[in-house]
């Protein structure tokens, strides 16, 4: 059975962020992920994890000016110093949270620039981040994201991500395979799991229904089937990572809306 982690940036929206740890544990989760922890003290978050018996399995590096529309800095020439400072900050959080996966967002292709022209900057930034992360046993993850949600995002396809991982050439760089984005951009999701999971280069999965990004049992993807594929391939190749539940509960911020939407998970937990 896949192991499922609650994404606390999206689940339990009716609760204050620090209270979501307890809610996730009460719903039977043993692990969590979230996007950005930086407005919270790392020690306070570590205490929430410990107090609720939870493991932190993933979070994101600083994305640049998120409210101003930025979605990462890794591909942006001229932002290297800020990128490196952000990785330093993220790794300090990773240490305190005991987290071994860091998602580094690629960033947007600036207007009037070609994606390929940004590749050297992206590769060199990721290589630097990976070497820093390796010093504390952290894996750096890169995630293809669909361009409907994030227009002009640098990284959209699984094949592009795996090509870049090979070019970066560091053992601790892996792909965060978000099946929601994968279905929107390219489809053929089960075949892609079978193609990429055995390579050892998939570090984490994330799931959500398509197209609304609600619970996995809402929408066009058959997750019961896909979880069986992950199970089957994992057994063959010895993969033992996590599946992040990164969706917006269909019942929105209604009290207990997240918990009531977890029916899809019943009987599926490792
Ligand atoms: O949007 C996603 O799918 C993510 O996983 C990012 O971390 C946030 O954009
Ligand atoms: Mg994702």
TrEMBL record:
Entries under InterPro entries matching the protein: HPT_OtnI_isomerases (IPR053398), HyI-like (IPR026040), Sugar_Epim/Isomerase (IPR050417), Xyl_isomerase-like_sf (IPR036237), Xyl_isomerase-like_TIM-brl (IPR013022)
Name the UniProt record assigns to this protein: Hydroxypyruvate isomerase family protein
Family named by the database record: Belongs to the hyi family.
Pfam families (UniProt xref): AP_endonuc_2 (PF01261)
Xylose isomerase-like TIM barrel domain: residues covered: 21-266
Record flagged with keyword Cell membrane: no
Catalytic site positions: 143, 246
One of the protein's GO biological processes: glyoxylate metabolic process
Keyword set, alphabetical order: Isomerase
Gene Ontology MF, one: hydroxypyruvate isomerase activity
Transmembrane segments: none
